[in-house]
Amino acid sequence: LRQYLSLNEQLSFMLLLSHSDTSNERRGDYDISARDNGFFLGETRMQNRSAELRSHISSESIDAVVGLYYSRDELYGTTYSGNLKYSTSGINADTDSIIGAGRDARVQSVYSELDWRLGEQWVLTFGARYEENEADNAILFRLLRAQLYEPTTGVVLPGDLTPVLQATVFPDVDRAPPSGDSVALAKLGLRYEFSDVLNGFATFSQGYRAGSTDFVVSGDSPAFGPELSNNIDLGLRWHGEQLQSALSVFYIDYQDMQVGVRVDPTTIRTDNVGSAEAYGLEWEGRWWLADSVSLDWGLGYVHTEFEDYRDGDESFTGNAFPLAPDWSANLGMEWRPALRWFTRMDLNLAAASYTDRANTENLKADARQLVSVSGGYETGQWGVQIGIKNLLNQFYITDQYTSESLAMHGVIVGEPRQIAMSLKVHL
Q1: For 104-136, what is each residue's pLDDT tens digit?
Q2: Under 8 Å CB-to-CB from 395, ≥6 apart: which residues?
Q3: Which pLDDT belongs to residue 406?
Q4: Per-residue H/E/C for the chain
Q5: Which pLDDT score, from 0 to 100, does residue 411 have?
Q6: Which residue of 80, 191, 256, 306 pairs with 272 in a disulfide if CB–CB is 3.0 to 4.6 A?
Q7: What is the pTM of this model?
Q8: pLDDT for 427
Q9: For the chain, which ranges sit under pLDDT 70?
């Protein structure tokens, strides 16, 4: 729900309220092979609510925004694992278990940004944001069944190992460790207008991701701290009648960067890296070839590197970030053959990337080339759209892992072809 209130030419307000409920259910094979190495049934439910009140103040030399923001995200999920083979301390067990996790996270902030025009061509930007985060977390793990099995034949043997493993390797966990932090962020920018269609810009801004608590199946639930970053952007923008384009170079300095580390197929631990950096370039634009046909594109290159990252005796300094392809690109074409009708085609490309902090060569995510198409009808009050994602039904790996205790190599694959229809109504 979006509402506007304009008091005069200099002062206006906007109220934005949102609510969404999402439910997802999935069945998976742990090793994606003909072997019977277990399956899982996962269910996740999320509820997201937010409210934002923004005021806009403008004059001949100043354009400013001041706002308040609040959001609450609730997540509840369970994963049932059946016939999962597990090996530890010389014991081979066939197990059934269930994991439950929940998080209730709240964010509240106040922010402002001001553009101050200095003469005909210079614009100076100041920005600030103060934010508080808090979350209540809960984790539950129950080992439902554990029996000996013969690893060469896979035959399950009589005998109940549940009490022993539950008391030693898999103690039940049922706790709600809270987490929370606050931060103050700043932004400073300078823009120079070469002409009515071309300007250059330089921006310094600070980024932030809140800390929280990991979900684990045994032992204490480890907490991880917030991630902070300093970001520098330099670039040019062209804003013409038929062509709009932006080219920029960037540098990001991370402190206490959050990195996910896969412990086992169902558990990812979050580390805080001492320091890390990323730099690269981005080029994006849109070109109207005719009144009814437009072409848009994006091209990005990024170099990522851990500058100081040690975990015990292991060092990952100098390695690239997991799941961060060097190159990515997108190309789209939109055609509006008649009033209110439209059709669109998109091509998305990404290079291969490492999936782990050690940059293991045989655990890379695949390069991919995905084609999507869509079309629909829209008016000022409503619109309907039908689309097909991954039109060619490309099979590609998005993540890989190995597990010595489960004696398997697992992969996570991208979504197959999907057909969807959406209806939007503006009240």
Answers
A1: 999 999 999 999 999 889 999 999 999 999 988
A2: 413, 414, 416
A3: 62
A4: CEEEEECCCCEEEEEEEEEEEEEEEEEEECCCCCCCCCEEEEEEEEEEEEEEEEEEEECCCEEEEEEEEEEEEEEEEEEEEEEEEEEECCEEEEEEEEEEEEEEEEEEEEEEEEEEEECCCEEEEEEEEEEEEEEEEEEEEEEEEEEEECCCCCCECCCCCHHHHHHCCCCCEEECCCEEEEEEEEEEEEEEECCCCEEEEEEEEEEEECCEECCCCCCCCCEECCEEEEEEEEEEEEECCCEEEEEEEEEEEEEEEEEEEEEECCEEEEEEEEEEEEEEEEEEEEEECCCCEEEEEEEEEEEEEEEECEECCEECCCCCCCCCCCEEEEEEEEECCCCCEEEEEEEEEECCEECCCCCCHHHEECCEEEEEEEEEEECCCEEEEEEEECCCCCCCEEEEEEECCCCEEEEEECCCCEEEEEEEECC
A5: 83
A6: 256
A7: 0.82
A8: 74
A9: 31-35, 88-89, 169-177, 215-221, 264-266, 405-408
What pLDDT, on the 0 to 100 scale, is given for residue 370? 97
**Residue 177 confidence (pLDDT):** 67
Distance (Å, whole) CA 249 – CA 282: 6
Do residues 266 and 81 touch, judged by C-beta distance below 8 A?
yes
Instruction: For residue 341, give the amino acid letter.
Output: W
Give the pLDDT confidence score for residue 56 in this predicted structure. 97
The CA distance from 325 to 365, in Å, is: 9
CB burial of residue 183 (10 Å; 0-12, 13-18, 19+): middle
- What pLDDT score does 176 carry? 61
Backbone angles phi, psi at 163, to 5 degrees: -60, -40
Distance in angstroms (rounded) separating the CA atoms of residues 195 and 113: 24
Give CA–CA dist 102/256, Å, rounded: 25
Residue 142's nearest CA partner among 110, 120, 119, 172 is 172
How far is 413 from 362, CA to CA, in rounded Å?
15
User: Within 10 Å of residue 107's Cβ, how many Cβ atoms?
Assistant: 16
Alpha carbon distances (Å) from 78 to 100, 201, 370: 4, 47, 31
Alpha-carbon gap, residue 356 to 354, rounded angstroms: 6
Q: Are the CB atoms for 55 and 93 separated by under 8 Å? A: no
Residue appearing with tokens 């034949």: 153
pLDDT at residue 178 in the model: 75
User: Which tens digit of pLDDT belongs to each residue from 163-185?
Assistant: 877 777 666 666 666 788 899 99
Q: Say how far apart CA 198 and CA 194 lie, in whole Å.
A: 6
The two beta strands, 368-378 and 382-389, are: antiparallel
